[in-house]
Amino acid sequence: MMILVTGATGNIGRALVRELDAREAELRILVRDPARAAGLPERAGRAVGDLGEPATLAPAFAGVDRLFLLTQGIGTDYTAAALAAAEAAGVHHIVHLSSFHVGFDPMPAMGRWHHERELLVRACGIPATFLRPGGFMTNALDWLPTLRAGNYVLDPIGPGRHAPIDPADIAEVAALALTEAGHQGREYALTGDETFTVAEQVQVISRTVGRAIEVRAAATPAEAVRSRFPHGAPPALADAVTESLALMRADTVGFRTDTVQRLLGRRPRTFADWCARHADAFRTAPAPA
Question: Does this model's pTM top 0.90?
Answer without folding.
Answer: yes
